[in-house]
Amino acid sequence: TQLLEQSPQFLSIQEGENLTVYCNSSSVFSSLQWYRQEPGEGPVLLVTVVTGGEVKKLKRLTFQFGDARKDSSLHITAAQTGDTGLYLCAGARGQNFVFGPGTRLSVLP
Amino acid sequence: DAGVIQSPRHEVTEMGQEVTLRCKPISGHNSLFWYRQTMMRGLELLIYFNNNVPIDDSGMPEDRFSAKMPNASFSTLKIQPSEPRDSAVYFCASSWGSSGGLYEQYFGPGTRLTVT
After folding, report:
1. Kind plus residue range of the DSSP H or E element containing A79
2. Beta carbons within 8 Å of B85's beta carbon, 6+ residues apart
3. Do A50 and B100 touch (CB under 8 A)?
4. For A19, which DSSP code?
5. What average pLDDT does the structure give for chain B?
6. Which residue spans within chain B are E strands per DSSP?
7. Gap between the Cα atoms of B101 and B44, Å rounded
8. Three-class SS of residue B104?
9. Is-contact B108 B23, C-beta < 8 A?
10. Can you tell me the distance from the alpha carbon of B116 to that of B113, in angstroms, rounded to the nearest whole number?
């Protein structure tokens, strides 16, 4: 059983479209991180959210932490082909993080 | 900074052989993490060190796996003997933080291990 669930598992969209991916759990996390991983590389940290209800923006990416700190969403506006990759969420568990299975995003030109 | 350095980038070995993966963390970071990534199980934490001391090794699959961090700039993950089910991409990550603090992990490029 996954501690963190991510949906959708796969997403293929056209350049310029908007999208939202989700990270859900039955557990409360003290903080949550989002990473993007490109083929052949390690994950790269995008953002850390700490406070319930917190919203952070990173250019066209908007991250939200649920009020109960059990879930999070990532919204991408006007997707670009460079956004293609595996998006991973990771919840703080004790002194380390547990990762979700990821959403694999393909943005087509 | 060169980032987290891992070697080798690719390793192909036969079942039963010993495999050693190496990691050089970012200078100044005091925590180091070893992960394994497969399509079936995703990214799994194997072990992590804080100030060169192993803190949590509950993710290490079995006794065939061992990890060491002899100093702040070097760590190894050893598999002996290796088995085909060990085939995966192994990542090393480092961060700076104290117990209970927020870890911003920086990942290396990974070692793709294939055991035939």
Report:
1. none
2. B115
3. no
4. E
5. 92
6. 5-7, 10-13, 19-24, 31-38, 42-50, 53-56, 65-71, 74-79, 88-95, 106-107, 111-115
7. 21
8. coil
9. yes
10. 10
Q: How far apart are the C-alpha atoms of B2 and A65, rounded to whole Å?
A: 32
A104 is written with which tokens?
Answer: 């694999």
Mutation site for A-interface testing, chosen from B43, B89, B98 by largest number of A Cβ within 10 Å: B43
Q: Are strands A103-108 and A85-93 parallel, antiparallel or unpaired?
A: antiparallel
pLDDT in tens, A10-46: 999 999 999 999 999 998 888 899 999 999 899 999 9
Residues 6+ apart with CB under 8 A from A86: A36, A37, A38, A43, A102, A103, A104, A105
Using a CB-CB cut-off of 8 Å, the residues of chain A touching B45 are 96-99
Identity of the residue numbered B60: M
**Contact by Cβ (8 Å): B85, B68:** no
Would you tell me how many other CB atoms lie within 10 Å of the CB of residue B96? 15
Average model confidence (pLDDT) for chain A? 93
Contact B97, B30 (CB under 8 A): yes
Residue indicated by tokens 């109960």: A68
Touching check for B18 and chain A: CB below 8 Å? no
